[in-house]
Structure formats: C-alpha cells, structure tokens
Amino acid sequence: MSVVTVQLGQCGNQVGHELFDVVCADAQDGQRKAYSTASCERFFHQTTHGDLVARAVLVDMEPKVINQSISRAAKSGRWRYGETSHFSQKQGSGNNWANGYCVHGPRHRDMVEELVRREVERCDRLAGLMAMMSVAGGTGSGVGTYVTQCLRDIYPSTFILNHLTWPYGTGEVIVQNYNSVLTLAHLYKLSDAIMVHENDTVHRICSQLLNIKHISFGDVNRVIAHQLGSVLQPALTADSHGVYSRNPLGELVSSLACHPEYKLLSVSTIPQMPSASIAYSTFSWPGLLKHLRQMLISNTKMEEGIDWQVRPTAGSERTSSLTAPSFNTSLANLLILRGKDVYSAETGAFEDPALYTSWLSSQEAFNLWKSPVPFNKYEKSATVVSNSQALLRPLDNIVGKAWNMFASRAYIHQYVKFGISEEDFLDSFTSLEQVISSYSQLC
Amino acid sequence: MTQSVVVQVGQCGNQVGCRFWDLALREHAHVNKKGLYDEALSSFFRNVDTRKSDSRACGVGGRIQHLKARAVLVDMEEGVVNEILQGPLREVFDSTQLLTDVSGSGNNWAVGHMTYGSAYREQIVDKLRKAAEHCDCLQCFFLIHSMGGGTGSGLGTRVLSLLEEEFPEVCRIVTSIYPSAEDDVITSPYNSVLAMRELTEHADCVLPVENQSLVDIVNKIKQMSHSGKPGSVIKRDSAIISGRGGLSGPEKPFDAMNNIVANLLLNITSSARFEGSLNMDLNEIAMNLVPFPRLHYLVPSLTPLYTLADVSVPTRRLDQMFSDAFSKDHQLIRADPKHSLYLACALMVRGNVQVSDLRRNIERLKPSLPFVSWNQEGWKTGLCSVPPVGHSHSLLALANNTCVKPTFMELKERFTKLYRKKAHLHHYLHVEGMEQSFFSEAVDSLSSLIEEYNHLDATKRRLMPDAPRLPIAR
Question: What sequence ranges are listed for the domain Tubulin/FtsZ GTPase (chain A) (predicted)?
Fold first, then answer.
C-alpha cells in the first residue's frame, strides 16, 4: 500500500519535494474519497493532529538542500516532512562517485538504515521502496548506489524502484559520464526497475510545450514530478479487482521488468501544456492515444514534432541500428489512463504485436491501468511507461563519452584515491556494453 | 556547512588578504540583514564573545558578537601586519593568528623556505592547528602569496608542504601572484621557478594571477569611468576594483588590483556559502577541473568588471557577460584561452540567472572554444542565487587551459638567462640547507610540466578517433 521514498543528493531531494507537492495537491483536489484516501495512504502518514507527513527519508552529504526542502514543504501548509526523517553531513561528495560509494556510504550506513526502518515500520503495509537520485554528481550517484545495496540486503523481498535523473548532455559536471557508468552498472544488479528522466528531454518539454521562457531547475523538476505522479497515483489494474491497486510497484515491475537484462524504463505523458491553457482545451481519447502511440514508436517525448513516417515493420525485416532513426521496439509497455470517460478508451492499437519484440506475446507485453479520476488538473491524460529501446541512444552516448575519457585515463586518479580501481571501471563498462547489446538486438 | 582557513604569507599575500577580509565583511553585511551569525558567515569567521573570560566561540544561530577571521597571517617583516593591526580590521584578528619576524627574507626564496621555514616550523603548525580546531568541518585552505619575493614565495611554499603533511585530507587552493616581465626584483625568476616546483607537487589547485593583467583591468575600468560618454557612468560600489562600503578608508595604491583578487576568492566560495539551484562545493572544483594531478593551474576570469548606472540598458548584458569571460581582456593572467586548448572549464554564476540562460550561452560559445578530444563537453557549472555587492549577476570562469604554457615558458626563459651566468646564485647557496640541485630539479620540474602541456596541445588540430569500444560476444 505505502511507498517509502528515499531522496538522495541535491537532485533527489529537489525532485522528491516536487513529487510530494504534486501528489498531495492532486489527492486533495477533492473529487473521489477512495482515490484521495488511497493516495494519501500511499505517500503520507497522518499524525494525530491530521497533518500529512511524507513517507520519505532525505539524505544528503551537505545540509543546504535538505534544509530548503524541509522549510518549503512546511510553508506549503498542506504537507510536511518528518522532523527527524533526514540525514545530512557538513561536506558533500565532491561529484566523486568513489567518495560517495566507498567513504560516505559505509560511514553513514547505520544512520540511514535506521531512518528507513522507522519509515517502513510506520507503514501498515509496504508496497515498496523508491530511491530518487541523479547519476551525475557524487552523493546521489555514489551514496545512492550504496544505500540501494544496503536496502536490497535488508529487504530482500521488497520491490525497489530507482528513479534516476540523467544530466544534460552538455556538461553539468565534467565527470558525469564516469559517475553515470559506475551507477548504472551497479544498480542494474540491485534494482528491480530503473526509471529514467533525462534533463535534455524535459528541458525541451518546458520550452516547446509549456512555453516557459526562462527555464529553471524548478520547472524541470515539476515536469518530472508530474510524470512520476501520473505513474504512481492510485489506479485500477487488471489484478486489483475493482479497487485501487494495493501493489503498484510490484505490478509495475512484474509487467515491465520481466527479464534481468532489461530494466530501463522511460516515461511519456500526454497532454503537456501550460497550466493556463488547460481550462480551454478539450481532449478526446482517440486523439490522445493515437499521438501517444506514435510518440512511443518514434521515440519522442513530446506531442509536437512527431515523426509520423516511423511505422512498425514486420519482425523479420527489422534491423537493429544505433545510428539510423528507426522504430522503437518495446519489450513491454504499461499504459495508464486517467480522467473522464476512461472506460470508453480504445487501446487496441497498443496491443499490436508489431510494436513488441517477437519473444513475448502482445497480451503479456501490454498492460493497462485506469483511473476515473482526472490527474493534476488534466481532464484526460495518458502515460506510457515503456521498457523499450528509447534509452538506448542516450545510454550509448554516455558510455561512449566515458570510454573516450577513460582511454586517456583523465580524472582516474581522483577515483583511485578513494578506493575504486581501473578494474572496477572496466567491469562497469563491460556490464553496460552488455546492456546496450541486449537492447540493440531487441527485435 | 564547511569552513575554510585563509593563510596569507608575505607582503603581497597579506595585502591581498587584507582586502579579502574587508570585502568579505562588506558582502556579508549586505546579505545578512538580521545580524545573526549564520552558516554562511561561519565559513570564514568565528563568532566570539569577548566578555567571557575564555573567549570561547559561539555556535551558529546566535547574534553576532565579535567576528574573528579564520586566518593565519605570516610575514617575516612587521610593516604590513602592523599596518593591518592598526587599521580598521584590527578587531578581526587576534594575536594568536599572527607570525612575524623583523628582518624579512631579502627577496631570497632560500631564506624564506629553509631558514625561516625550519626556524618557525613548530609555531606555524601550531597556529594552523589552532585555526583548524576552531572549525567544525574544515574543507579547504586558501593560501595567498606572491611568487617573486622571498617570504611569500619561499616561506609560503614551505607552509604549503606543511599543510599537505599535517592536513592531507583538506583541499589546498593556492592563489599565486606571478611577477610580470618588468618586475623590479631581479631574482624573481629564481624565486618563482623554485616555488613553481612546490606548487606543482603540493597544491591541489593553483589560481595564477599576473600583476600586469590586474594593471590592465584597472586601467580599463578607469578609462571607462573617465571617458565621459553618455551612459558610461559606473554604478557606485559595483566596480570590481572598488572597496567602497568596506571598513577601510581611502584607497591605497595597490588596493584596486588587490580587490580584484579578493573578489576572485569571494566568488569561488560563494556557492559553498550561499544557496542556489545547482551548488558547487570547493572539493568539486578540484575533482572536475584537474584531470591529471600535476596539471592543476586554473586560469581565472571575472565578469562583469563593473555595472553601468544606466538601468535602461537591456538584458543583452547577461549574454555579454558570458562572452566576456572568454575574452583575453578579462583573464587574470596574460593569456588567450580561446586560441589554446581547454582541458576543462568551470562557470560559477551568481545572481538571478537560470539554467536555461546558462545552457543557451554554453551552446552559443562552445563552437569557438577548442576542447580536448576526450572532454568535448568539459563544462562544470554552478548557480548561486546570491549576487555579489553592486551587481545583479556575475560570472567567474576557471579554465584548465594550455594557455598557461607561454607564461611558464617565459618564466623558464627568464630563469635560464640568469642561471646560465650563475648571477646572484651565491646569495642562495650561502643559505644553510640550500644546494644547487634545487635549482636544476626545479627547472626540470617546470620543463616537464611544459612538456605535458605541449603533448596535449599537439592533439589540438588532429581529429582524434574515438577509442574502440569493448566487444561483446553475441
């Protein structure tokens, strides 16, 4: 029923804060009692005074961001973080994965485990754990990986979802590719599913769909929170027998991440528009679903500029190519519909076997959740969480750039200083090349 | 929140340091309206209640009682330090933070490094340790000194190696003032090259600054304000050379130049002290900008140099600020980074600037800036929401760029000119502990550093192929 979120590093804490804001506002929008109750139960616990306290643990190696998140949440008046649910140190991880993973992680393991344990014990029933972090820095990536490892040890049968934010391609941090490679390689063995948002993509959504002129990280984070919220808010699933599903993470993982080589999930949502325009727009399910399907197969995350030329080809003709813009083959998809007339929506087009890899039947590969409650002010909205080749090219770019840098051994001394060897780097590269190869061959 | 300790050595180091403390107080007074001793203040100052008999430091959150700088002041002659102690900043330092002698180092690196280095070793370590103990979490030592003299150069580098020995985990960021070609100290090439070796081996990052560049910047600003053109009036307090609003009275001759270096230090630490949407801590600077341990010379450039008083000038200023950061007029050494090879670059932005402005400008400027093949997107960015005094936004760029090579080559040439003739060598060799091998080793270290930069430069024009990827069995 309840999801405990662990927010790690600056990004994890900033995005996590926006997520709780979105789900709280959506739940309290006062439409259906069952939905509100389910949503609040999932993300918050209620104190005796009726306050909503987020089921979250905030972790960072320096205090500024956590302090900011906690005070902003308290100011909102609608919800807050627990007073003792956070852990910070004085000095950050210096953008160094090795510093996070080898030094800070182990040093503070007991404290963090204790905080998570407390949150878990407050849940009547635990649906799973979600760790939110970025891969570019030192704390989110390094400490985040270590914490995921610890949680996996302590809760071996709990579902663990990692939400990752991938940085802008053009440098936020120079060693971001090293940090990304090390994180992804390790998480692949630990996590049940890895859901990814890329800053570049979300930035484009902000500028072209939402028409924001001066895009700030707050704007980017709010879009990510909206998309995540549309996935995690209560929904009726095939297995939930007419009530809101009590096992959202479990059902997500079992629908999508059915093979250990394939764990990368991407998210597309429609519609996305400036909030001022929502009231003046009307949507139809056929229109929304047609666009969303094409967004999926042409691998665009926006409903503008969709390439309608991309068409599914017969299985035997498909080539796997990293360079040519080609059809995005899916392993599995989860379609989530929220809003008015949701029962009348026709989703047959998503079950087309041509969308999927040949070794899974489209009945098993396609999953559908519905909720009659409109989400976040949109009268009708649809989200697809996809285990597909969508992240293949970005992943390949990251690994390619990291490999080039590794070839010249630049910055390696900074990692070796804290306990990571060149062997560890090579192992991580090998794991990720394997993942890239598996996804390339999906047809 | 972390703390930093400033160690100022020699006449130049102390004069620059003095300007730094003045401007730091001005900046915090500007931002901290409630008079509370907050985390930002504690990064450079202790709060001491002098009424209590043991003058113990007060923790964060209380009212400001008495601010003491986290600093150690070292000079082998008393003039400069005495002036500081008689000036308006005297309350900021207490006697336990000072180390002085009477006779000076005679512009002799060996006297500073060997003679005074050994004589005062215990005392120096003691004072450093005291300063470190006052810190909750010490992150960084800032060493300020000049390279051309005797104390700053010799004793300063001795202090640097002591810092490495006693506090190996604390980052060492060194601001070194390099002598210009027309320097009036004849032996400055010797002193500089001997000090360079120490910097290459013991510092985490070095921010080289050349006097001549500072002079050029000062002249540029003076020219602007005296040109009398309409719309060219500079807003008060906003010029990077201005010390107005600080404690000190009328400006002394080198103040303008020293203010620039003081501003450099303020801006580097701004993201660690104040909040922002993309924080950049001091340990992140070394991590991202130093790809190979010895190549840690980061060329600083500061913009804007001043803000015009005319408010009707549109926001084209923001993009102009980014362009200026890469022009050779704004660099603090005589170098042209645009025409050399970038290994890495950090942009630390302060004020009301969003990530989209940052990205737009990086995209715009990237094509004209040559980056090394394995670091094509070698940008490290930081956004701090608090602007500096007098400006609405500012940018500090730190470039790890092969444009330092000409500076080092020139230095080596000047050294060789003297060394060939063995001019003035006896002054050094007379000092106990000093041998000729120091000279040859120092110049060798410099040569190999230049060679490393050469090696990277050679890759500049060539299109380097991508490294072949690991093959995976299908």
Answer: 40-240
B20 in reach of chain A (CB within 8 A): no
**pLDDT tens, position by position, A360-385:** 888 889 999 999 999 988 999 999 99
CATH code, residues A393-441:
1.10.287
The mean predicted confidence, pLDDT, of chain B is: 86
Convert the pLDDT of each residue in A127-167 to its tens digit: 999 999 999 989 999 999 999 999 999 999 999 999 999 99
Q: How far apart are CA A417 and CA B286, in angstroms?
A: 13
Helix (H), strand (E) at residue A380: strand A380-388
Residues of B (312-351) whose Cβ lies below 8 Å from A: 344
Helices (H), B134-155: none
Q: Which DSSP symbol is given to A104? A: I
- Percentage helix, strand, coil, to 5, in chain A? 50, 20, 35
| Helices then strands, each counted (H, E), chain A | 17, 12
Chain-chain contact of B375 with A203 (C-beta, under 8 angstroms): no
Residue holding tokens 């005796």? A48
Q: How many Å lie between the alpha carbon of B281 and the closest alpha carbon of chain A?
A: 7
Task: Tell how far CA A169 is from the center of its chain.
Answer: 18
What residue of A is the nearest CA neighbor of B282? A94
Alpha carbons A378 and A382: distance in angstroms, whole number: 10
Question: Which residues of B fall within a CB distance of 8 Å from A411?
Answer: 287, 290-291
Q: Which ipTM value was assigned to this complex? A: 0.83
Q: How many CB atoms lie within 10 A of CB B288?
A: 28
Tell me how crowded residue A36 is: count the other CB atoms within 10 A of its CB.
Answer: 17
B247 touches chain A (CB under 8 A): no
CATH topology of domain A2-266: Rossmann fold (3.40.50)
d(CA A369, CA A360): 20
Shortest CB distance from A94 goes to which of B283, B375, B379? B283
Q: What is the pTM of this model?
A: 0.89
DSSP letters spanning A43-82:
HEEE-TT--EEE-EEEEESSSHHHHHHHHHHHHHSS-B--
Q: Which residue of B has its CA nearest to A426?
A: B470
**Three-state secondary structure call for residue B449:** helix
Cα–Cα distance measured from residue B264 to residue B270, given in angstroms and rounded to the nearest whole number: 10
Q: Cis bond leading into B406, ω under 30°?
A: no
Q: What is the pLDDT of residue A360?
A: 85
* Cα–Cα distance measured from residue B347 to residue B394, given in angstroms and rounded to the nearest whole number: 10
Nearest to B83 by CA among B61, B65, B98, B66: B98
Which DSSP state fits A32? Answer: -
* Contact across the interface for B292 and A413, Cβ inside 8 Å: yes
Query: Domain residues of chain A, as ranges?
Result: 2-266, 269-313+325-389, 393-441
Helix (H) or strand (E) holding A18: helix A9-27
Report the chain A residue with the minimal C-alpha distance to residue B271: A64
Contacts of B215 (CB under 8 A, 6+ apart): B257
Say which DSSP state B294 is in.
T
Distance CA A208, CA A213 (A): 10
Q: What angle do CA A428, A433, A436 make, to 5 degrees?
A: 130
Tokens linked to A298: 């042409």
A170 and B363 in contact by Cβ < 8 A? yes
- Residue B387's nearest CA partner among B275, B241, B225, B256 is B275
Q: What is the DSSP code string of B232-257?
A: -PBPTTTSTT--TTSS--SPPTTHHH
Print burial letters for A327-352: b (CB count within 10 Å at least 16), e (below 16).
Answer: bbbbbbbbbbbbbeebeebebeebbe
Architecture of domain A269-313+325-389: 2-Layer Sandwich (3.30)
